[in-house]
Write a structure and sequence with these properties.
Blueprint lengths: L1 H20 L44 E4 L7 E3 L8 E3 L2 E3 L7 E3 L6 E8 L14 E5 L3 E5 L34 E8 L2 E2 L5 E3 L2 E6 L2 E8 L21 E3 L7 E9 L5
């Protein structure tokens, strides 16, 4: 009996140690300019902040905005790889149909303000990055993470609202499974000189359900899984992409407007 108790205690201690170690990796490269590795298992998770019932939910588009999705059709979108999206539309939202491919806008923008609302699956399934995973991409390179981070432990730079693989959000302000969340995003595109040298990095401001997660935070290159990649010169313009990660995530009320310039 004593031997059994010691064995049980040992297993419990091992389990507690595994939990303390966190979720993530130890064999990924270090993020440039940071002490952490990409998806570092030891990086602290952000504090949880319960948002108010609504913030910009249902916000109508300003006069100079382009409505990308009003709940009725995919006229502004196409499937990654070409052709019409294979996601479904019902009740005023679009929903990812797993393994049918991501989608992206037909048009492109430079610096822009984006409003988008999303809901993770009502019935949570899986854990960590396997629960309600999707993403909002600017220019096909820079991801604002979409994830069911409600009572779901994962690596810090993969939480909902993370600048994926680079910066965790300042807070975990996601709502529960099936509830609608509002993203208000500001993206400043990188700039390059005639020789392709970076002259200004990209910046992102992220507000989730009224909680500021990033305030003009610098991106140190494209966001990727398990890697830290440098900038590569491009025009500074691109579309908006929504990721198919195999989970039936929903999106609605999507509009975008150019930031403009000071005189």
């Amino acid at each position: 009996m004593k031997r059994h108790s010691l064995l049980t205690l040992g297993l419990l201690c091992a389990s507690a140690a595994a939990v303390a170690q966190g979720v993530g990796y130890t064999d990924t490269p270090q993020i440039r300019g940071q002490k952490w590795k990409v998806h570092d298992k030891d990086r602290p998770n952000p504090p949880t902040v319960k948002p108010a019932a609504t913030f910009s939910h249902g916000a109508p588009a300003p006069a100079d905005a382009t409505v990308l999705f009003d709940g009725s059709d995919f006229s502004k979108w196409e499937r990654d790889g070409g052709g019409a999206p294979k996601w479904k539309i019902e009740h005023g939202y679009m929903e990812v149909v797993g393994k049918s491919g991501g989608i992206h806008t037909k048009d492109q923008w430079g610096d822009a303000q984006l409003h988008i609302e999303f809901a993770t699956p009502t019935k949570p399934e899986g854990e960590s990055q396997g629960r309600g995973n999707s993403g909002v991409f600017f220019h096909g390179q820079f991801e604002i993470q979409v994830l069911d981070s409600h009572n779901n432990k994962t690596y810090a730079d993969g939480q909902a609202g993370a600048l994926y693989g680079q910066w965790p959000p300042l807070a975990n302000a996601i709502k529960g499974p099936g509830e609608w969340n509002s993203y208000d995003l500001v993206f400043e595109a990188p700039r390059f000189d005639a020789e392709g040298k970076l002259t200004k990095p990209a910046y992102a401001t992220v507000i989730l359900n009224g909680v500021v997660l990033h305030n003009r935070k610098e991106l140190n290159g494209p966001t990727n899984h398990r890697s830290s990649d440098p900038y590569k010169a491009y025009s500074g313009k691109g579309g908006i992409s929504l990721q198919d990660h195999g989970n039936p995530t929903r999106f609605r009320n999507i509009w975008i407007r150019p930031l403009g310039e000071y005189n």
